[in-house]
TrEMBL record:
Keywords: ATP-binding, Ligase, Membrane, Nucleotide-binding, Transmembrane, Transmembrane helix. It is an enzyme of class 6 (ligase). PANTHER family: ACETYL-COENZYME A SYNTHETASE (PTHR24095). It catalyses: acetate + ATP + CoA = acetyl-CoA + AMP + diphosphate. Belongs to the ATP-dependent AMP-binding enzyme family. Residues 424-502 form the AMP-binding enzyme C-terminal domain. This is Acetyl-coenzyme A synthetase. InterPro entries: Ac_CoA_lig, AMP-bd_C, AMP-bd_C_sf, AMP-binding_CS, AMP-dep_synth/lig_dom, ANL_N_sf. It comes from Molorchus minor. The keyword Repeat does not apply. Coiled coil: none annotated. Its EC number is 6.2.1.1.
Length: 513
């Protein structure tokens, strides 16, 4: 269609940086139809992070929107893309086409701001408005025939060395698994209304906002906004309004909403709900009980779905109506999946016990490689325990055989369901003008689940104070994105070095070789 007229062909990568608008879904499906590999980057990542990802996959076409309102905040998406494209050009790579959805004109901001005309600067010859080119495109487009193992999309996820990994999923296996897990895990029936609150920029958005529901011809809600705007009962207003039957969200959202008075939930008719899903991090029993009692009126099944960007779809989950529930347990494997618990020496733990969560057999949507880096794929996932896919998570098995995922066992942490690497943040600190050294670790957080706690050693006579703290936080926002901002930064006059006298980052890189 319009991408085709821009020269995009089978196997080319298309970078996407979009808010939760219909055009985001349309772009992904358009790419799939012409065999292009979409590489969607969450529109909360900074221009630095976006540039790094565009360069890695060499996407010559980018699709974005001029901007979006997130609550009362204006996200200048096209501006961030412009910055990213400048950074790519400085490294000798030029994005040739940037398609911009004119979105701000069709919405009014919370403050009543309404952009009547397009305000975004456009670069002649490179930037085009979606609204100018799509109406001219033909309404029919013969699909590109794809082999089952041809790539469908790639999606970056954090890596413990700090460099993001381009997880690659294929056409046949991924789609089959997305469709099957969606149908059985949510017990979706024709005419049900399903809603997943995840942003399309993450794997949950790919599999359970776009591909899984659409492969089942499901009716779903696509929501652009936050749970807190215009009021803290926004989720329940929508469930009531559209009579949502399956609702899928993250523990961090549940914990944030639990803070408000129960009446905000109770005043809505939530009787349409049948299945409540949880994803992204372990759900604590208090949040589980609140979800079960207040939102689900003790009559809904809760499916605590454990999976990863790499697994493509749910791998551990209760099945609604079939699995007796335990608050906080991801329970049992989905059909065909074989989880194993291993101890440090790689010995299998049978029966009750706790260890590394690995899988002994592949399933259709297990990622096939890391884009352009098959060696890293093998080292990261298959070397520690030969013969197994290693999740990087720990889990325990109880006496009834239920699996409980306990969290990451590597240098990754999960902030509000966003997986990130401590090394990524540390390397940002190490590049400050005042030559600081940082060490980041993970602290539990009542709402976000986990948060970043950083120790900073400054040199070059920088004074540790409010000004420096602000600069350091700003630096992380610019290097990675606002969601990665540390909660605590502590002055550490000296930080220990490793035996070889190196900093942490260099050692990890070496470990992975
Ligand atoms: O640590 C696990 C946690 O999220 C990680 C995967 O993150 P990501 O690739 O960004 O995908 C998130 C959405 C699927 C896992 O390694 N995680 C995800 N779901 C759960 C979970 N931890 C415990 N219970 C879950 N249900």
């Amino acid at each position: 269609m319009c991408s085709k007229s821009r020269g995009v062909k089978k196997g080319d990568r298309v970078a996407v940086y979009m808010p939760m608008v219909l055009e985001a879904v349309i772009t992904l499906l358009a790419c799939a139809r012409i065999g292009a590999i979409h590489s969607l980057v969450f529109a909360g990542f900074s221009s630095d992070s976006f540039a790094e990802r565009i360069l890695d996959c060499e996407a010559r076409v980018l699709v974005t929107a001029d901007g979006a309102w997130r609550g009362e905040k204006l996200l200048q998406l096209k501006y961030i893309c412009d910055q990213a494209m400048i950074k790519c050009a400085q490294k000798g790579f030029n994005v040739e086409t940037c398609v911009v959805v004119s979105h701000l004109k069709r919405v009014t901001s919370p403050q009543g701001i309404h952009y009547k005309s397009n305000q975004t600067p456009m670069t002649e010859g490179r930037d085009v408005y979606w609204q100018d080119i799509v109406p001219q495109a033909s309404t029919s487009c013969y699909p590109e025939w794809m082999e089952a193992e041809d790539p469908l999309f790639m999606l970056y996820t954090s890596g413990s060395t700090g460099k993001p990994k381009g997880v690659l999923h294929t056409t046949g296996g991924y789609l089959l698994y997305a469709a099957t897990t969606f149908k059985y895990v949510f017990d979706y029936k024709p005419n049900d209304v399903y809603w997943c609150t995840a942003d399309v920029g993450w794997i949950t958005g790919h599999t359970y906002v776009v591909y899984g529901p659409l492969a089942n011809a499901a009716t779903s809600v696509l929501y652009e906004g936050t749970p807190f705007y215009p009021d803290n009962d926004r989720f329940w207003t929508i469930v009531d309004k559209y009579k949502v039957n399956q609702f899928y969200t993250a523990p961090t959202a549940i914990r944030a909403l639990m803070k408000f008075e129960d009446d905000l939930v109770k005043k809505h008719d939530l009787s349409s709900l049948k299945v409540l899903g949880s994803v992204g991090e372990p759900i604590n029993p208090e949040a589980w009980m609140w979800y079960y009692k207040l939102v689900g009126h003790e009559k809904c099944s809760i499916v605590d779905t454990f999976w990863q960007t790499e697994t493509g779809g749910h791998v551990l989950t209760p099945l609604p109506g079939a699995t007796p529930m335990k608050p906080g347990a991801a329970a049992f494997p989905f059909f065909g999946v074989q989880p194993v618990l291993l101890d440090e020496s790689g010995r299998e733990i049978k029966g009750e016990g706790e260890g590394y969560l690995v899988f002994s057999r592949p399933w259709p949507s297990l990622m096939r490689t890391l884009y352009n880096n098959h060696d890293r794929y093998e080292t990261t996932y298959f070397t520690k325990f030969p013969g197994y896919y290693c999740t990087g998570d720990g889990a325990k098995r109880d006496a009834d055989g239920y699996l409980w995922v306990t969290g990451r066992v590597d240098d990754m942490l999960n902030v509000s369901g966003h997986l990130m690497s401590t090394t990524e943040v540390e390397s940002g600190f190490n590049r400050t003008p005042f030559n600081s050294r940082g060490c980041c670790c993970c602290q539990t957080h009542p709402i976000k689940g986990e948060c970043l706690y950083c120790f900073i050693t400054t040199t070059d006579h920088a004074v540790f104070g409010e000004k420096l703290l602000k600069e350091l936080k700003q630096l992380v926002r610019e290097r990675i994105g606002p969601f990665a901002q540390p909660d605590v930064i502590q002055n550490a006059p000296a930080l220990p070095k490793t035996r070889s006298g190196k900093n942490h980052e260099e050692d990890i890189e070496e470990d992975c070789r």
